[in-house]
Amino acid sequence: MSDDTYSGPILEIDQLSISFFTRLREIPAVMDFSCTVQPGEAMGLVGESGCGKSTVALGVMQDLGVNGRVVGGSIKFKGQDLGQMSPEELRDIRGSQIAMIYQEPMASLNPAMRIGKQLMEVPMIHFGTSKAEAYSRALEVVTDVKLPDPERILNSFPHQLSGGQQQRIVIAMALMSKPSLLILDEPTTALDVTVEAAVVKLVKDLGKKYGTSMLFISHNLGLVLETCDRICVMYSGEAVETGSIADVFDDMQHPYTQALFRSIPLPGADKNARPLVAIPGNFPLPHERPDGCNFGPRCDYFQDGLCNQGSVRMQPIKGNDRHGSRCRRIEEIDWQAPIEVGAQTEKPEPGDVVLRMDNLKKYYEVAASALFGGANKKVVKANETLTFEARESETLAIVGESGCGKSTFAKVLMGLETATEGKIALHGKDIQDTPIEDRDTKTVSDVQMVFQNPFDTLNPSMTVGRQIIRALEIFGIGEDEAARHQRMLELLDLVKLPREFATRMPRQLSGGQKQRVGIARAFAGDARIVVADEPVSALDVSVQAAVTDLLMEIQRENKTTLLFISHDLSIVRYLSDRVMVMYLGHVVELGTTDQVFQPPYHPYTEALLSAVPIADTSIEKQHIVLEGDIPSAMNPPSGCPFQTRCRWKDQVLGGLCEKEVPPVRDMAEGHQVKCHLADDVLARMEPVIKIAAE
Fold first, then answer.
1. pLDDT at 342
2. Under a CB-based contact definition with an 8 Å cutoff, are residues 451 and 518 in contact?
3. Which one of 150, 268, 416, 525 is CB 3.0 to 4.6 Å from 475, fit for a cystine?
4. What are the C-alpha distances in Å from 320 to residues 335, 538, 618, 657?
5. Prior bond to 600 cis, omega within 30?
6. Using CA atoms, how far apart are residues 182 and 42, in angstroms rounded to an integer?
7. Beta bridge mates, 100
8. Is pLDDT at 5 greater than 80 in this prediction?
9. For residue 98, is pLDDT > 90?
10. Residue in 310, 303, 312, 308 with CA at minimum distance from that of residue 333
11. Residue 478: its pLDDT value, please?
């Protein structure tokens, strides 16, 4: 198909319906879905997991597997119906004109094949290019995706690259054939926020350079704002609102879009004065969808007899460019009405110090050649001189990229590892040298952890109630089985799960519900300190709001100290009282949330703030992209750990940054920064995030 003459839309999806067929029934995954992508346009597809975003992408790729089938509507690529094409014609288009980038980069790379060979295959198979030409094209694309030392990269195997580098290779592979349409399915979920910022900027620049149209699938509204021209919001298999970014973000016309925005922490949200509003109820299962509007049972504006009758169609919004909404009450709802502020709560005053760390160090010895052992041992300095304290009822956030030592410090605190040096005092008692098996029950129940992935922490063959009762037995709580059963039901009430869930198995629960069981188990022994390790990053935004709200409520009632480990600074800003920023084992900044989010910053904090995508069009943000990957803890840079990526380094004279680890400096009461920059340079720092004047 020659595309020089074609000038219409690149992709036209018209009233598409896709179902999956099981032995029992037909399960409709996507219904009446329409969307158009013009040449050079980037369309964001947004919604919670299970809403059908990836199914649409697989429909475009005509890759629905054995059970999936298009049961209505059409998908046209450059005016040609993909559903009418033969497998040979599809094979010619897939990978050459339409390319897809998946969430997990390693799933797209062959672990036994050098990167260069994998890239060269694309033009050689699709276009019959010569080996020499394919190599020079591979070199060009690897340079385009900003990877250092392209020749070395082409000669490497996938396992020799970091996650961010692997994802760039997958993007390079997709671009090898200069496709007209690039489909990105959550391409940055597994990456650190600083790497994500670099990859997103890269995708945007490359889209412009190659004139590629994009279908960008994400559950992160901030990312879509930064990468796309248009957006389509999906809920339970249907598109519920579509339009340009400005139309949908500033003039939303569907209750679900509005509810989504109310459940994400934008600048200005405050956990006490203006808490997030979680969407009530649960996402309907595909075979249990309600009559009429799918969102009806969870909607604030639901009207019986109107919203639950017949099928609801997409309606154009007057006066806006290609803006549509699937709602019967568009005209009657006051979309500009302010949010009704929920129950306001008093901010709990932090009490006595319950946890104190003093010069904590954790080093690991590893063999220089991990494969064969050997005499040469290297020391990995996972934590360097951590000093801080945490008080009762306080939320202390620990922020940094993966590999900065956040989880190592949590393991030492939990007793899963013992400290190399330094002290950890819990209620004045030193625990740094006592492994968990030697800790008394009180200490174990006092410090509990909520993990990132709720799926991995529950026993799949034990009911929910039994798992909580086991924790109570271990902590020695309750005189007999009946008392423990009663306490288990109270814990389910505490985490707002119905009591009948006690008899359910983990597989019958959604991700958010499993995370609640994890929280119930952590609080079974009246924990004083809860370490929450990325507890909401695996959850959808509306569920995130409910789970963070829950943690706050339990904290208020039980006066718990919450150590919240995260890389998502918008949630940190919303939740925490104080923030500790870590880089390569060092604490580079520590202060109250207000101090850390206002200049002067440590240069690394500044880059982290800039990297967080914010779903608000009134925000002006400096874009600071960190060059290079995080150095290895086995081979850290000399001097300041951050100096290899710091944009302020040239402000310090005499190469001090390369020679010496900076001292810890007090900027203000309770605000510390580990940096060589002079006071007058720090004072000149601009705010990264500005709310534009009305």
1. 60
2. yes
3. 525
4. 15, 35, 19, 53
5. yes
6. 9
7. 183
8. no
9. yes
10. 303
11. 87
User: Whole-angstrom Cα distance, residue 269 to residue 573?
Assistant: 9
The per-residue pLDDT for 1 is 47
| pLDDT tens sequence across 599-635 | 889 999 999 999 888 888 888 888 888 877 778 777 8
Question: Contacts for 600-604 with beta carbons within 8 Å, 24 or more apart?
Answer: 600/667, 600/673, 600/682, 600/683, 600/685, 601/673, 601/685, 601/688, 602/642, 602/673, 602/674, 602/675, 603/642, 603/646, 603/647, 603/648, 603/675, 603/677, 604/642, 604/645, 604/646
- Count Cβ atoms below 10 Å from residue 7 Cβ, excluding itself: 10
- pLDDT-based confidence at residue 692 (cuts at 50, 70, 90): low
Whole-model pTM: value is: 0.86
Q: Give the Å distances, CA to CA, from 402 to 317, 395, 399, 442, 516.
A: 44, 21, 10, 31, 25
Distance of alpha carbon 163 from alpha carbon 165, whole angstroms:
5
Instruction: Sketch out the chain's domains with CATH numbers.
Output: 11-228 (3.40.50.300), 353-528 (3.40.50.300)
Q: Which among 631, 625, 663, 659 is positioned nearest to 644, based on CA atoms?
A: 631
Q: Is 470 exposed, middle or buried (0-12, 13-18, 19+ CB in 10 A)?
A: middle
Identify which has the larger pLDDT, 462 or 541.
462
396: which DSSP letter? E
Question: What span, in angstroms and rounded, lies between the C-alpha atoms of 511 and 457?
Answer: 12
Q: Is 302 left (phi over 0), alpha (psi -120 to 50) or beta?
A: beta
Distance CA 488, CA 433 (A): 33
* 373-382: long-range pairs with CB below 8 Å, 24+: 378/634, 378/635, 380/633, 380/634, 381/585, 381/633, 381/636, 382/408, 382/585, 382/633
Count CA atoms closer than 13 A to 400's CA, side-chain side. Answer: 25
Q: Within a 13 Å sphere around the CA of 8, how many CA atoms are in the beta-carbon half?
A: 8
What is the rounded average pLDDT for all residues in the chain?
88
pLDDT of 694 reads 46
Task: Look at strands 447-450 and 529-533 and give their pairing.
Answer: parallel
Closest CA to 189 of 452, 542, 508: 452
Residue with tokens 């690897």: 142
- Cα–Cα distances (Å) from 236 to 239, 284, 355, 599, 665, in that order, read 8, 7, 45, 42, 52
Q: pLDDT of 361-404, one tens digit each? A: 999 887 665 555 555 677 888 888 888 899 999 999 999 887 78
Q: In Å, how far from its chain's centre is CA 232?
A: 20
Nearest of 174, 200, 181 to residue 75 by alpha carbon: 181
Regarding predicted confidence, which is higher, 538 or 18? Answer: 18
Element (H, E) at 234: strand 230-235
Q: Cα separations (Å) of 659 from 638, 642, 655, 676? A: 6, 12, 7, 11
Cα gap 425→356, rounded to integer Å: 5
Token pair 């995708």: residue: 203
Q: Which two tokens stand for residue 115?
A: 């990167």
Mind listing the pLDDT tens digit for each residue in 242-286?
999 999 999 999 999 999 988 888 877 788 877 888 888 878 877
Residues 6+ apart with CB under 8 A from 397: 564, 565, 566, 572, 575, 576, 578, 579, 580, 593
Look up tokens 């590999």; give the residue. 403
The pLDDT value recorded for residue 4 is 55
